[in-house]
C-alpha cells in the first residue's frame, strides 16, 4: 500500500497539477493514510485479542526480567565507574594540592631560613676589614713621615757637604793661583843670580802649596764621594716615598670601597627583609587557603569511599585494562597444542586488535608447520587485522637457498591406496593389506605429514611446511613413545635435534649450516633464552601480553628485564581458584593490569580484590542469562 501511494505522484509527474487537483490529491492521500492507519490498528487489536498461553506469558516475563537484569547490571556498573571516576578526580586534585602544599612548605622553610640569615647578617666583618685598612694606611703614613724626615736630614747634610766642597774647591783654586803667581815672578826675573835666590826662597812655600793642594784634593774627593752616597740614599728614599704614597692612595680607595659596600649591603638587607616578610605572609595565606581546599577534597574522598563501600561492599575499583595506541603490543606464547592455549592466544589477539584497531605481533616459541596459515585464517574469520608473527622455529629454519622440491605421493604397483573422501587423507597398504604409511593433509590440499608404519605401529613421521618442504621428522620407539625430533632448514640441512626420554625432551642440539654442533641445551628455556638474546627485541615502546604461567612470557619478562608497567599477564581459571589468585596479587603488587578468560573470572576478582586493579576479559562470549538482584535498591 505504501509503495502505491509513493508511486502515484510519479505517474502524473509530466503534467502540472491544478490547485483543485492538488487539493483532491491531498484529500485522497489523507483518506488513504487514514484507511492504512485504521487497518493497522485493527490488525494490532486482533493480535492483542489473540489468546496467549501461560507458557508464552512466562517466557515473555522471563525475557523482560532478563532485559531488566542486563539494564540493571549495566546501570550499576556505570554508577560504580562514575563514582570511581569522581573519586579519581578528587584524588588527582588531592595529589596536585599535596604537591603544591609541599612546594609551599619548602618555599616557606627556605624563605624563613633566608630571612633569619639576612637578619643575622651585619657589617662586623666589613668594619673589621675597614679598621685593618685604616690601620695599614696610618702605618704607611707614619713610614712616610719618617722617610720624609730622613730625606730632609739627607738634604741638609748634602747641602752642608756641598758648601764644604765649594770651600775646598775655592781653596784649591787659590793654591793653584799662588803657584802660578810664584812661577810668574820667577819667570819675570832677568837676573839669573836673583832668580836662583828667589827660587830658593819660594822652595819652602811651594812645598807647602803642594802639600796643601794634595790635602785639598783628597778632601774634595772625599766630599764628592760623600755627596754621591748621600744623593743615592736620597734617591732611594724618594722611591720609597713614592711607593708609600701609592700604597696610601690605594688604601684610601679601598677604605672608600668598603664603606660604600657596607652602605649597599645595609640597604640590600633592609629591602630583602621587607620582601621576605611580605613573601612569607603571602605564603602563609596561600597555605591556609590550600589547607582549606585540601580539607574539602579529603572530605569528598572520604564520603565517596564510604558511599562506594556501603553500596558495592568493596572499596576497590576493577576497571578495563588501559591500552595505549601509541605503543606496540606483543602477544607471547610457548604452547599451541591444547585448545585452551589456542583459545587464549587468539582471545588476546582478538581483544587487542579490536580495541587498538591495528595489528599486534605474536612472539612464539612453539612449533607448528602451518602456524602462519592458522593465525591468518583465524584473523580473517574474526575480521581483525592479520597479526605479525615472530616464531623461533621460523627463524631457525630459514635458509638463503631454499629447496624447491615439493613432497608428493608416488605411484607404485606394489601399493594399495585408499583415500578418505572427507579429509582426503591417503592410506597406503602393501599387497597383504599391511599398513605402510598414511598421508595427512592440511586444508585438504597440502600434505601436512606422512606417517610410516611397521607392524601397524608408527615408527616415523615426516612433517612438511606449506610449500611441501620437509620441516621436521619424528622418530618413535617400540613403546610408541617419541624418542627424537629433527628440524630442518628450508634448504634441507638439519638445524635442531630434540632428544626425548619417556616423551619428555632432555636435550636440544643446535647445528650450524655446516652440520656441526653449535649448542647443546638441556632445557627449552635455555634455547629460548639464547634466541631472545640473539633477536634482541625492542622493549622501549612495547607492551608484552601473555599467559602468566607461560614459559616464553616468563622468560621475555625476566631476560629483558621488562618493567611491570609494560606487561599484562593472563590468569587462567580465576573463578575456580580465586583465593590463590588474590594471594598471587598480594605477593606481586606490581601486577596492576591483567587479562582473564571469562566474565565469571572478572566477577570473582571484583568480589574478592583488596586493591584497585584493571581487568579485561579476552573471551567476551556470554550465555545471555543474568538474574535480577534481590533488591533493585542501589
Automatic annotation (TrEMBL):
Residues 1-59 are annotated as: Disordered. Keywords: Coiled coil. Residues 1-15, 39-59 have a biased composition (Basic and acidic residues). Transmembrane segments: none annotated. Residues 199-300 form a coiled coil. The keyword Coiled coil applies. It comes from the Bacteria. Signal peptide: none annotated. Residues 21-38 have a biased composition (Polar residues). This is Uncharacterized protein. It comes from Companilactobacillus paralimentarius DSM 13238 = JCM 10415.
Amino acid at each position: 500500500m505504501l509503495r502505491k501511494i509513493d508511486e502515484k505522484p510519479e505517474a502524473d509527474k509530466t503534467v502540472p497539477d491544478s490547485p483543485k487537483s492538488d487539493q483532491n490529491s491531498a484529500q485522497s492521500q489523507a483518506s488513504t493514510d487514514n484507511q492504512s492507519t485504521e487497518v493497522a490498528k485493527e490488525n494490532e487489536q486482533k493480535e492483542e485479542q489473540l489468546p496467549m498461553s501461560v507458557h508464552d506469558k512466562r517466557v515473555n516475563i522471563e525475557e523482560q526480567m532478563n532485559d531488566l537484569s542486563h539494564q540493571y547490571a549495566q546501570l550499576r556498573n556505570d554508577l560504580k565507574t562514575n563514582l570511581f571516576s569522581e573519586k579519581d578526580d578528587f584524588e588527582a586534585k588531592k595529589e596536585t594540592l599535596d604537591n603544591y602544599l609541599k612546594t609551599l612548605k619548602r618555599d616557606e622553610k627556605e624563605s624563613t631560613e633566608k630571612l633569619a640569615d639576612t637578619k643575622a647578617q651585619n657589617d662586623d666583618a666589613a668594619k673589621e676589614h675597614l679598621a685593618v685598612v685604616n690601620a695599614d694606611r696610618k702605618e704607611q703614613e707614619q713610614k712616610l713621615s719618617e722617610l720624609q724626615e730622613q730625606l730632609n736630614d739627607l738634604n741638609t747634610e748634602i747641602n752642608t757637604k756641598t758648601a764644604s766642597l765649594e770651600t775646598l774647591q775655592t781653596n784649591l783654586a787659590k793654591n793653584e793661583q799662588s803657584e802660578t803667581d810664584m812661577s810668574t815672578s820667577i819667570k819675570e826675573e832677568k837676573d839669573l843670580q836673583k832668580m836662583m835666590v828667589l827660587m830658593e826662597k819660594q822652595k819652602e812655600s811651594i812645598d807647602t802649596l803642594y802639600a796643601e793642594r794634595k790635602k785639598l784634593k783628597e778632601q774634595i774627593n772625599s766630599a764628592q764621594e760623600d755627596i754621591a752616597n748621600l744623593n743615592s740614599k736620597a734617591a732611594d728614599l724618594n722611591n720609597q716615598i713614592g711607593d708609600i704614597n701609592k700604597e696610601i692612595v690605594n688604601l684610601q680607595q679601598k677604605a672608600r670601597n668598603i664603606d660604600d659596600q657596607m652602605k649597599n649591603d645595609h640597604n640590600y638587607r633592609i629591602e630583602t627583609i621587607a620582601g621576605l616578610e611580605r613573601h612569607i605572609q603571602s605564603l602563609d595565606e596561600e597555605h591556609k587557603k590550600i589547607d582549606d581546599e585540601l580539607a574539602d577534597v579529603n572530605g569528598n574522598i572520604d564520603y565517596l569511599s564510604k558511599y562506594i563501600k556501603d553500596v558495592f561492599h568493596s572499596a576497590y575499583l576493577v576497571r578495563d585494562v588501559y591500552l595505549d595506541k601509541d605503543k606496540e603490543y606483543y602477544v607471547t606464547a610457548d604452547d599451541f597444542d591444547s585448545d585452551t592455549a589456542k583459545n587464549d592466544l587468539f582471545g588476546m589477539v582478538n581483544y587487542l586488535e579490536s580495541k587498538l584497531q591495528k595489528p599486534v605481533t605474536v612472539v612464539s616459541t612453539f612449533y607448528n608447520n602451518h602456524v602462519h596459515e592458522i593465525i591468518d585464517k583465524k584473523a580473517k574469520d574474526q575480521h581483525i587485522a592479520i597479526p605479525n608473527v615472530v616464531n623461533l622455529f621460523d627463524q631457525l629454519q630459514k635458509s638463503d637457498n631454499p629447496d624447491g622440491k615439493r613432497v608428493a605421493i608416488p605411484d607404485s604397483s606394489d601399493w594399495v591406496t585408499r583415500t578418505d573422501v572427507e579429509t582426503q587423507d591417503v592410506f597406503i597398504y602393501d599387497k597383504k593389506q599391511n599398513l605402510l604409511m598414511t598421508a595427512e593433509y592440511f586444508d585438504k590440499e597440502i600434505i601436512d605429514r606422512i606417517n610410516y608404519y611397521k607392524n601397524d605401529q608408527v615408527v616415523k613421521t615426516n612433517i612438511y611446511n606449506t610449500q611441501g618442504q620437509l620441516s621436521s621428522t619424528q622418530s618413535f620407539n617400540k613403546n610408541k613413545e617419541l624418542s627424537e625430533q629433527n628440524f630442518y632448514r628450508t634448504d634441507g640441512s638439519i638445524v635442531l635435534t630434540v632428544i626425548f626420554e619417556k616423551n619428555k625432551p632432555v636435550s636440544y642440539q643446535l647445528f650450524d649450516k655446516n652440520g656441526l654442533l653449535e649448542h647443546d641445551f638441556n632445557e627449552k628455556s635455555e634455547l629460548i633464552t639464547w634466541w631472545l638474546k640473539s633477536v634482541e627485541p625492542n622493549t622501549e615502546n612495547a607492551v608484552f601480553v601473555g599467559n602468566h604461567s607461560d614459559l616464553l612470557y616468563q622468560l621475555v619478562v625476566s631476560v629483558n628485564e621488562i618493567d611491570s608497567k609494560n606487561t599484562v599477564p593472563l590468569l587462567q581459571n580465576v573463578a575456580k581458584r580465586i583465593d590463590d589468585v588474590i594471594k598471587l596479587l598480594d605477593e606481586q603488587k606490581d601486577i596492576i593490569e591483567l587479562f582473564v578468560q571469562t566474565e565469571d573470572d572478572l566477577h570473582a576478582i571484583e568480589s574478592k580484590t583488596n586493591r584497585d586493579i584493571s581487568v579485561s576479559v579476552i573471551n567476551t562470549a556470554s550465555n545471555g542469562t543474568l538474574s535480577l538482584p534481590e533488591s533493585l535498591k542501589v
